[in-house]
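Field guide to reading this record: the first block holds the primary sequence, the second block holds the structure written as discrete tokens, and the final block holds curator observations. Each block starts with its own label. This record concerns KTSC domain-containing protein, catalogued under organism Bacillus paranthracis.

BLOCK 1 — SEQUENCE
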Amino acid sequence: MMELSPVISKTIVAVGYNPFSMILRIQLKHGLYDFFNVPENIYTGLLNAHSKTNYHNTYIKNSYRYTKI
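BLOCK 2 — STRUCTURE
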């Protein structure tokens, strides 16, 4: 089970990352999503972003295959 860390964001509740499988898990207010083949620098960029929502929309949402879990 992947551990999620809470974040301060308007739409993102928590995030987690598995560097071995390269899965980024994002808990949004409306659901839990796994994004596949995400490089670790994208995960750290999300954690360090001033606006996590904007970072997610710009660099993750339409760039990686995902599934709602």
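BLOCK 3 — OBSERVATIONS
Residues 40-48 form the longest helix (9 residues).
Residues 5-68 form one domain.
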